[in-house]
């Protein structure tokens, strides 16, 4: 009776009792009837069985032609593209703010503001809707790009000092918007199958590749530095608008609504059972005629194909309400509850949190600050542009490799992330001592940037992808936000170390010449 599949409910069959009454017998195949669907319906009489059609009745939506995956990849592009736009036009920055530490200042400003933003977003995750946070992030990212490109680059309305301050303020606003957006997206992706988290992280690297190629081609095709910088910023603005529009479209698709509602149902079940002790379920196995009582439904987590981990084949679930539910007014959680929720999640994924923090700490010690200061008498300003392009492209490759189906142990992942510390002395040897660097040939920083990019892409993505799978579905958005806090902490510490090293060496000969620039020897 219950072995024909899970797609439909069998027809009701009439049967007659000895007393002559006719009753209807129903058989449900592999269904768990959820009390969620009964919440908005009136229960006519006390003690009447409430039968409801479950959300699992529909077939699992398919990501046709991988359109959702592509949209999520572009979402990753959207929240790193604005910052990359500011730092990748390094030649324009060095020309306009000659002898200054503009790239270091931008990097440190971005990270400090971003850390505040990600902590704030982690608090607001239970107070503001996901869509609200993402929309505000896009608006904060687009505003400074438009303002700087029009009033500073094109119209040149500001003095050098004013423009310097304006660029740092713009980077700060971009940092706040993009980080709120980024942190929200990681929580968002925690509700979807794992491959979509990998898609978002690949999009981050794609942003770097797009911006690097955009800067190379605008600089090659247009000689005038001011004009090619304006066009460069306009391309970035167009890309950011496209990402925002795609987000608005994708969030309404049946695929996204299916998985996000599935995750939220798990959360609502856990909340309902903690507040309502009068509700119970009766599981009736129509094959064995066994009746089993349960104290509420347990949320099940979706697998990649949308199937559930709990099997109710051949069973019927009846939900009985002896007392109607009280309507509970929604209120913000207490600080104690928020800290407890984060503590519980952190205990499960602590190794993944440390792994992603160490990975980005090592990377930010070197990129973009130190790499932007490497010069060559033959290649001139082209060398830092090429090094950044190599890093962004190899980082993109590393994030694609992160999609390979391999399950890492948290401790082992942390160990390999720590091994990347070897890149710090290698890059230092490319710039020090100034008169004759130990590794003076420009091929050396290119090779090191290639290897650092691949390992950064891989070990920066795997912890984020796998951490969400270690917690129940209702905690995945919080896990994604918590991982982003660790990610931003690593970025901040790396930027502080890079900035401190620059400030320590800048006044003397150190890593910089009298003009504030370093040139490796020609070849």
TrEMBL record:
Keywords: Membrane, Transmembrane, Transmembrane helix, Transport. Residues 1-10 have a biased composition (Basic and acidic residues). One of its GO terms (biological process) is xenobiotic transport. GO terms for cellular component: apical plasma membrane; basolateral plasma membrane; presynapse. The keyword Transmembrane applies. Gene3D superfamilies: MFS general substrate transporter like domains (1.20.1250.20). It is a multi-pass membrane protein. One of its GO terms (molecular function) is nucleoside transmembrane transporter activity. Its main location: membrane. The chain crosses the membrane at residues 68-87, 107-124, 136-155, 161-180, 200-218, 230-250, 348-370, 382-401, 413-435, 441-459, 480-502. It is found in: Membrane. Residues 1-21 are annotated as: Disordered. The keyword Transmembrane applies. Pfam families: Nucleoside_tran. Belongs to the SLC29A/ENT transporter (TC 2.A.57) family. This is Equilibrative nucleoside transporter 4. The lineage of its organism: Eukaryota, Metazoa, Chordata, Craniata, Vertebrata.
